[in-house]
Structures are given as structure tokens and as C-alpha cells.
Amino acid sequence: MKKLFTMLVASVCCSMAFAATSPTTISVSNVTILKGGTTRQMEVTINATGNTAFQFDLTLPKGVSVTKATLGSIESNKTAAANQTRQLRHKLFDSNANKYRFLSYDNGNAALTDTKVLITLEAAATATVGNNIDVAGSDVLAVKINNGTITPSTQANGNVAKISVVDGAEIEIPWGGKTTFVCDKDLDFSSMTNTNAYIVTGYDLTDYSIWLTRVTDVPANTPIWVSGPKGENSNSPATTVIIPKGTSTTYYPQNLLIGKATGSNDVPAETDEYLNWTLGKDGSVSKRVDGIQGFPAGKAYLHLAKNINSVVGDAQTIELNATGNKRAFVTSYDLDFTNVNGLKAYTITGYSKDGTMWLSRVMKASANTPLYLKGGDRSYSDIPSTETKMQLVNMLKGDATNTSSVKVNDGTYTTYVLSKQDGEFSILASDNDAFPAGTAYLPVPNSHLVAASRGEGIFNSKEVEAEVIKVRLMGLEGDGEITGISRVVPEAAVGNDAWYNLSGQRISTPTKKGLYIRNGKKVIVK
To answer: Is residue 409 part of a domain?
Structure first.
């Protein structure tokens, strides 16, 4: 056996003079690896059916190393089990080229029976080597051993795969397809095709829903809601996605998610004013958290008000500025813009260094909510005031009934106001101790000022209406009993007469007895 083994290894590792069979081919999968993070799997497929042994070389970018290789349950360079004769070996064959050689053989000369042999490699990166670097599979060779006769295949090269080593973060998404995440790095979601990030910018107590505003540029230490690949059922494994590191240029005021990237993170005890919620593995907002010490770093929880004051008054009339047909406005009454033709109301939920204001449209707004209004060249009358209980994240500031004391620059923020002359936001002309009631202003962090506006009074801003979706918090009414789970739905689908089961799935009408949700209320079907 020793003589045969030596002969086999020599035959595999050296050029052969025997008559050769057809080439044995290799296929290497593309892979993305996180710099300094956990290892990632790369698959190598070989059509070596009927062969006793095979070898191949794999050239990796410098800075990337193979940490583990597995053929089925056979781990490379580990002692084989007593009844295991198939072996797998690998080593760094050429350090200058960063070339690894892999060799598989069988102590009993048994032939491979699988149509394709799958080897799983785990690779790690100690340096950023760029994106889409070639990974070359070469010198692919297999041999058959039959009654001491060695028949090699024709030597061949494999495909050229791509390997990307990125700096960023790994996010583990459970089978429900949603999670919360906080990272100490700026992250860039713009290249992600199946994973989206959101900040929580609103909470509607009238239908028990939260408002999610999609973001792609995520500053470090910003708690986000992540939506990604969903498993088939609760037995599905979590999906790990890699998000590239970015260079954030956007500022968001604190959103309704709270969490820390590192260090101790304690959840306060619930009070008569606030409740705390987290996401379950099924993607539901269904778990209350109360006074927890050591809440996991890198995760976030929702901090939501139990009650929001509502002030209903007479229908309102709003006159827009003649130039630009805009207005920065705040009133002491709840307003409902749902059926007001031609008039749109927004909060400003983010601001980028290039001057972009991120607008989130609102159909209703609670009393004393500063709004950015856009419409036509006319007065809007009979805007209804209906009960609205909305908690909104907003950069706009202002007081509905009292004057405000506003500085041009308080050392942290520079104040912008909507100009009646050109319909643009301009730097406040001078400190104002009696800024008018009913008018809103925009404090912009000095760190995010547009360079051209630092010494000028006019600020030519850009406007982008962000994508906003709703997530319903079923069963929050009354005593707060949890009776269902959340569901991400388009805005138009929320608040209608639809039925939902306790899995958050929309159904036409109940066909079985049980508990259902309709218009945010519990309904028992007998």
C-alpha cells in the first residue's frame, strides 16, 4: 500500500508520460470576502467521476488565504476517521504567486462516484485587494488506478473566477427577512440588489404603524432596519450579507430606533409614556423589551410613545409663497392632507453635504409638527383637521403659537429659512430673537454645510423624495396584548378593509375560525 500510495502521489504531482484520457475540468465560484472579518465560502467543482485521485492549483490575490478546505465531510489536513479512506490535502505551493495546491486521493484506490466533486473552501482576507480580482484554477489533473495501471487525464486549466475583498460589515438576516443593525463604520447600500436599509422616521398611533424611510448612505453608529433575503420557514438558516464601507455625506436626526455599535447598551424600563419593541426572527415587531441590561451591541430597539396629543380644530386655509409655491409652516392643529388636491406636505428627514434635502411625504401631521409644503400658485382652503397621532423625526423646527429665538450660527448649526424672493432656503440674515410663530426654519449641521454656501447667503438646495413604507404593529391597541406580527406593505395598502391572519399574511376573507386583524383591530371569527 505504501508503494502504491507513493506512486499515486508522484503520478498526481508530476507531469505524466502515460497516454492520457480526456481533460478533467474545474469550476470556481465568485466570492466576496470581508477584510478582517469571518471567512467566506468558495466552491470548487470538478468533474472527476471514475477517477481515484485528482489535483488542482488555485491562485488567489495576495492578502487572501485559504483557512479550510472540505470535500463533503472530509476536512483537509485533518486526521481521517478510522473508516475514512478518502483524503484531502492542501498547502501554499508558491508563496510568491500565492498559489495553493489541492490533492485528493483514496487509500484504498476507490474511484469517485459522484458526477461532480464539490470542495468548499473558506478564505480570509488580511488586506483590501480590490474588487473582482481574478482567481485562476490551473493544472487540473486526475488519474485512474486499476490493477496497478495508472491512467491520467489530459492536464487542463479551469475558469477564471472573481474574488472581491471589501471593507465593511457583515449583517446576519434571520429567516424572517428583517433585522436591526448598528455599525461603527459608514456603510454604502447603493450597490445592494436584495438588501435595503431604513431609518424609522415616524410612528402612527391611529393605525399602530411605524414609518420606514429608505437610506443608502448610512453614517456610522446609525441604527437601521434591514430588509433582506427571506427563508422559506423557521428552519431556514440565517443569511449573511456583506455591506461595503462607504464615506457618509448624509446627516439624519435621531430616528426612532435606538442602539449602539459597540459597548454597553441598556434598554430603559418602560414607563407610562413609552414602550420598547424589538424584531423577532420571524420579522415581526412582536417582542417587548423592558429594562434590559446588556442589550446586544450592534442591535437596536424601537422606543415608541404610548400616547401622542391630538388637537383638532377648524379647517385651515394655507397661502403658499408666491415664488416657488412653497412654505415652511407649523400650526397648532392636526391636519389631514390626504384629499387636498395639488398640495403636498413633507418632513425633512435627512441632509447631505452636496445640499440634498431628503423629504418624507406625510398625508397627516399632528399639531405643532413643522412641515415643508409644496403646491400650486393659489390659496388652499378647507384643509381638514382630523385626529392625528403621529410622532415624526424632522429636521425642521418652529413653534405654532410663540416666537422663537434663532441664531444664524450657534457653533453647531447654521439656520436656513425659506426665502420669499426665490423660493430657496437661504442662510438667516441675522440673529432673530422674535422669529415668527407659525413659520418653520431648518438648522443644518455645520459639518454638512455646502462649501459654496459658507460665505454666501443663498443656498441652492436639491430635493429628493425618499421612499417610505409602513410596518404595522398588530395588537398594540388596548392593553398592549400582542396578537399578531408586522407586515411591510405599500402605503396605499395600509388602513383599508383588508383581513390579516396572525402570521401577518393578507387574506381575502377568513375561511376558518380564529383570531384575525381587520383595520388594526382584533376580530374573532366563530
So the answer is: yes
Same domain, residue pair 346 and 380: yes
pLDDT digits (tens, 9 = 90+) for 344-362: 999 999 999 888 899 999 9
Amino acid, res. 517: I
Name the amino acid, one letter, at 294. G
Q: Quick one: pLDDT at residue 458?
A: 41
**Torsion-angle region of 412 (φ positive above 0: left; ψ -120 to 50: alpha; else: beta):** alpha
Whether 82 and 59 share a structural domain: yes
56 CB neighbour count, 10 Å cutoff: 27
Range of the domain at 146: 2-166
* Average pLDDT for 256-267: 89
Closest CA relative to residue 364, chosen from 506, 475, 494:
494
Residue matched to cell numbers 387574506: 507
* Domain stop point among 243, 274, 305: 305
Q: What is the DSSP string of 31-72?
A: EEEEBTS--EEEEEEE--TT-SEEEEEEE--TTEEEEEEEET
Q: Which of 443, 304, 441 is CA-nearest to residue 372?
A: 441
Pair 193, 57: CB distance under 8 Å: no
> Which residues, in sequence order, are bridge partners of residue 348?
359
* 126 and 155 inside one domain: yes
Using alpha carbons, select from 247, 263, 373, 368 the residue that is nearest to residue 310: 368
> Quick check: is 473 in a domain?
no
324: number of Cβ within 10 Å: 16
Phi-psi region of 423 (alpha: psi -120 to 50; beta: other; left: phi over 0): left
Query: Are 357 and 270 part of one and the same domain?
Result: no
Confidence of residue 86 (pLDDT cuts 50, 70, 90): confident
Q: Are 285 and 178 in contact (CB under 8 A)?
A: no
Looking at the structure, tell me whether residues 329 and 368 fall in a common domain: yes
Cell numbers representing residue 202 in the block: 415616524
Q: How far apart are CA 448 and CA 471, in angstroms?
A: 31
Find out whether 189 and 216 touch, Cβ atoms under 8 Å: yes
Whether 335 and 388 map to the same domain: the answer is yes
Binning pLDDT at 50, 70 and 90, where does residue 486 land?
very low
Angle at 353 between CA 349 and CA 354, to 5 degrees: 105
φ and ψ at 427, to 5 degrees? -65, 135
Residue 302 C-alpha cell reads as 424601537
Q: Which of 112, 137, 166 is the last residue of a domain?
A: 166
- The total domain count for the chain is 4
- The predicted pLDDT at position 163 comes to 79
Residues 276 and 200 reside in one and the same domain: yes
